[in-house]
Amino acid sequence: MPSIVNGQAHGPAVTFESRLPLASESPNAQGHDLPSNARTLHQTAQLEGLLTIIRSKDTGRGDFVFTSNRIIRLLVEEGLNNLPVVPKQITTPLGDVFTGVGFQGKIAGVSIMRAGEAMEAGLRECARSVRLGKILIQRDEETATAKLYYAKLPEDIASRHCLLLDPMLATGGSVIKAIEVLLDHGVPEERIMFLNLIASPEGMKKVCTMFPKMTVITAKVDEGLNEKKYIIPGLGDFGDRYF
Ligand code: PRP
Ligand code: URA
Fold this sequence. Notes:
Elements: E1 3-5, E2 8-10, E3 38-40, H1 45-55, H2 61-81, E4 85-91, E5 97-103, E6 106-113, H3 120-126, E7 131-139, E8 146-152, E9 160-165, E10 168-169, H4 173-184, E11 192-199, H5 201-210, E12 215-221, E13 224-225, E14 231-232, H6 238-242
Parallel strand pairs: 3-12, 6-7, 6-9, 9-11, 10-11, 11-12
Antiparallel strand pairs: 1-2, 4-5, 7-8, 13-14
Helix pairs in contact: 1-2
The structure holds 1-O-pyrophosphono-5-O-phosphono-alpha-D-ribofuranose (PRP) and uracil (URA).
């Protein structure tokens, strides 16, 4: 398999286009039956190249941060694609009246610290007036059980579309705790959208079954979890590599 480093392909001259299914032929393209409230980004050769870089143990922090940020941007754009719009009439500089659409409602980004904070800048770049909240949840290194330490959310969070940010979905324990915090603060389940880089199939199924009215958008559903509840093949500890 060729590797893509700094935009240059190395290795045998095999194109991804000849090996990857078209997104339109196979929207999830990973052999997993995704729950109906979950979807992946389109599985393009570019995305596969970016994921290959962040998966590699040989990728240093600078390239890891740069490449993760590019995938995060794709996730944020896809999340925004799924927010509701209403018809909106404007007048162009030539005096024509044009009926387009405008976004309906306000949004909040809520990051699951620490790794989720890596996704805040990408959201701010696309949504300037976004309000941000933070929930500190940490997995116990030994048991992989998630523990909630702290939550600070915008006071009007219940009236906003909530984009929940965490790059890794392993057992699902952390994001389930975070969703419970949002529900406790009055956010309707159908207004929660979880943006995620890599998910395990079992974690994805658990979260989507518990909260069938929320939406999950992920870049990739991987093969599973190892005995330490790390995602396989995954990329290791996202927070340790990014920060
Ligand atoms: C990681 C990751 C998720 C969680 C996923 O965070 O960012 O929040 O683990 O695992 P789960 O689905 O099994 O709960 P971690 O607690 O390691 O903290 P960090 O963000 O500081 O690295
Ligand atoms: N957290 C990570 O950063 N990576 C995993 O594979 C699981 C939890």
